[in-house]
Design a protein that fits this description.
Growth Hormone, Chain: A; globular; 2 domains
Amino acid sequence: MAESRENGDGPPSRVTLAAVLTVFLPFAGGYYLSYLYRVVGAVIADRLQRDVGLGAADLGVLTSAYFISFAAFQLPLGLMLDRYGARRVHGALLLIAAAGAGVFAAGTSLWQLWLGRALIGLGVAGGLMAALKAITQWFPERRWPVVNGLFLATGGLGAMSATAPVELLLGVTSWRGVFVGLAAATCVVALAVLLVVPEKPRRGPPRPLREQVAGIRAIFADRFFWRLAPAAFLTMSTSLAIQGLWAGPWLRDVAGLSQAAVADTLFAMTAAMTLGFVFWGTLADRLDRVGIPLTATFGGGVALFLVVLLAITFQATTGILPWLAFGLMGNVAALAYTVLARHVPLVYAGRTNTALNLLVFLGAFAVQSAMGGILDLWPQGASGGYPPAAYRAAFGTFTAVCIAAWAWYLLAARRVRLGETRLRPS
């Protein structure tokens, strides 16, 4: 692995308090806000409709702005992270997010709100990717799984904060006031990243831009990337699509829960998701220490997620337990980011993880939309819901796709393994 370390200057040999305080916590603040921004729209949707006069289709257009700008910036983001460093790139982007929150707070029309939301999506696009890049530089490689798991859990805390706590805030201020507060908080975190996070010294000038762009093409041509990527992005995309949209309608139409019970179940699932990040990171770290490789933990974890998804799809069990298990297991594929970071030279870490992240978010759009198209093949009931058979078809289709991708991951292990790459330090 020596040749795969950046210019011979690899990560440190132990976790230090300085790295936790000056690297982990500032980046965790940015990721916390990125998840809060992603989820808060659902809480204020009814107020937006009332105050600005938006319809359901308008809300769909508005929701898309965050994800469109977020996904579109992933490949440029990876190149910038590897060229300019996580501190400068993420700090500057967070200032754009703060400006977007200000535009959103002042918006009086759909397109003003859309612009604000798009700027927010652009500004938080580096929330996870910049941190993963920084973690590879400031934390020991053997601890990456647990550090990444703890970091990802801060996103879950952001998602939880966007529900009941924001609802409480809306009792004392308007949605505009909430976004003014978010803009101020984002500025504080941006300054913390820019002023507190240390700069990793670089040996020599950065490689020419043409060579770094060529590195992106090399990543997409890497055999191990395509062994891992289908199982990783399809599993994460399906999980995101169900957690972010279709779990609520399923609980209403199939389980027959009231709106309050649906909200409680979704909150519990989000809490389980937050614990799941820590659980999988810690488990992967412990298994790695006793000789079970991260690639095996990834494959086994995806298999468990598919079992849970099958149980939900075919209603093998009822109640809240399947959805708690879904939240706990639904993020296991995030281990793929750590696997890829170990696979490539550190100078490619930003571009490699953003390449996978691009696939994840494009996949989430596709899966979310396709599930809706499948559901529409069945007539809606008097209450506007869909029959259980429609959800079995929608969920079952992508369960089958995920199973096929998981099988490819296992079968391709005979032909390509971790570390077998033509990518070389630049």
